[in-house]
């Protein structure tokens, strides 16, 4: 029932994804819908919340649940951390229909696993001198939407100061910078910059690990790996590569639950 003066009241959450601690990892909005919502309205809500992505999931029907993701400025085809946040908020096993096909999540023992399509790397030729001034890129590959620049040392990833204006001009959604891990239990580190879609630096990016997983699994010779996204908030993503799919695993913490009045 709508509160007085409002047409509808919707449940919503803010969930910190890929972390076991509040105010770490990547925060995502999750809005539960009884029926399809207007695209412009969803974009306005995402702009209001200002998280790197807000998920909108229809829970009113039977069968797989339609799921969409919006940054503060655009709709995106795939978002890992907001899908993990949605799976955490709903609990149990979930099946979603999305612009990237059918996705599944399972919330169990304080962790959420997600079945995503792998994004195998291919060679790329893009001049990154302006975007990554002074950085020695050893290898550059691309996936469907992102560029992956590999450097030699994790310390260079951790202290990186990219030119965000130059990155915004690149012909891809995001630039991922990655290196071998430098801590026990961490196989690779990364950071992700997507200013062209309204996300200067994404704290932890599940969809980027669909590209990072096949790259590092091939390089390290193991299907199961652990990545650390070394943003200021930071987060940890487990990856398992199998038959063209990537299982992404992480913890999540609900930091806000309330009502969206519209």
UniProtKB/TrEMBL annotation:
Alphabetized UniProt keyword annotations: Isomerase
Active site, per annotation: 53
GO molecular function, one term: isomerase activity
Cellular-component GO terms for this entry: cytoplasm
Pfam family, one: PhzC-PhzF
InterPro entries assigned: Phenazine_PhzF-like
Gene3D superfamilies: Diaminopimelate Epimerase, Chain A, domain 1
Domain of life assignment: Bacteria
Entry keyword Ligase: no
Family in the record: Belongs to the PhzF family.
Protein name listed in UniProt: Isomerase
Species of the source: Amycolatopsis taiwanensis
């Amino acid at each position: 029932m709508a509160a007085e003066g409002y047409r509808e009241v919707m449940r919503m959450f803010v969930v910190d994804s890929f972390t076991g601690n509040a105010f770490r990892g990547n925060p995502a909005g999750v809005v539960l819908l009884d029926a399809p919502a207007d695209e412009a309205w969803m974009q306005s809500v995402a702009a209001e919340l200002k998280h790197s992505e807000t998920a909108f999931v229809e829970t009113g029907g039977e069968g797989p649940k339609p799921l969409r993701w919006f940054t503060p400025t655009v709709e995106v085809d795939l978002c890992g951390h907001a899908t993990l946040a949605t799976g955490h908020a709903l609990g149990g096993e979930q099946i979603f229909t999305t612009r990237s096909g059918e996705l599944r999540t399972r919330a169990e023992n304080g962790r959420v696993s997600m079945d995503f399509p792998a994004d195998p790397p291919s060679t790329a030729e893009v001049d990154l001198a302006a975007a990554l001034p002074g950085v020695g890129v050893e290898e550059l590959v691309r996936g469907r939407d992102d560029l992956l620049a590999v450097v030699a040392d994790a310390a260079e990833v951790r202290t990186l100061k990219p030119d965000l204006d130059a990155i915004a001009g690149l012909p891809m959604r995001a630039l991922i910078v990655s290196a071998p891990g430098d801590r026990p239990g961490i196989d690779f580190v990364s950071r992700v910059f997507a200013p062209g879609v309204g996300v200067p630096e994404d704290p932890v990016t599940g969809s980027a690990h669909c590209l990072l997983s096949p790259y590092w699994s091939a390089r390290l010779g193991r299907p199961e790996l652990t990545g650390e996204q070394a943003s200021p908030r930071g987060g940890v993503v487990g990856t398992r590569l199998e038959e063209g799919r990537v299982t992404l695993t992480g913890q999540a913490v609900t930091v806000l639950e309330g009502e969206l009045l519209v």
